[in-house]
Amino acid sequence: xxxxxxxxxxxTISEYHEKYLKQFGVKLPKLYASKGKFTKDALVLVYLAxxxxxxxxxxxxxxxxxxxxxxxxxxxxxxxxxxxxxxGWWIAAGGRDNxxxxxxxxxxxxxxxxxxxPGFKKGHRITETGDWDKIKERYxxxxxxxxxxxxxxxxxxPATKTILQKAHIDPNKPLVAGNIIPxxxxxxxxxxxxxxxxxxxxxxxLADANFVRNFDxxxxxxxxxxxYKEFNGKNPNSKK
Length: 240
Known about the structure:
Layout lengths: L2 H19 L18 H9 L9 E2 H9 L10 H8 L2 E5 L13 E10 L15 H7 L25 E5 L11 E5 H7 L3 E3 L5 E4 L10 H14 L10
Antiparallel strand pairs: 1-3, 2-3, 4-5, 6-7
Helix pairs in contact: 1-2
């Protein structure tokens, strides 16, 4: 891949980023570092985006070899993993946690440039949460979901002390005042940003559409029929 190809692919990535990903807080890596060298992040992203949207499976060894052509002293390329969950680019990584593509461990593939990585949410860094003590007081210092009381034995794990944490009502929105309920450490960690709650801690919506893949086949078929009817059988991948 020569300089012209890298610049061309990066331009395509930039256009998709501006249109689809910037609004979610996904950061576009710089193409050039000091002295006119390509940055490692940009090189990895460009390599994965080659021939987009027909992306291919790429091994960690292949990525490392490519980056070494510009940075000979590179030992082990970690950029693909960092660009994914941490920076917001939807790069699927092989392993048991991946449910969108069938790829082996040690393999990466750019899934899409039109959506951010599912676990990446704009504004998840807490900047304003209102009065946390007032929020807990409103719930009588109990988990909104399971009812376990702060600093008391947990309802379901009696040997564990209940610790209340700030949890999203809607994980697709920032963790700020108006979008917070108190949840114990068990309910908050087990959730993994899958659900939207009401102010009483009850699940009312699905926040992560990919979790549908874990539903029983019968349920998925029912969902498919509902959506097929709603969208008149339109292929979501067809050009408008």
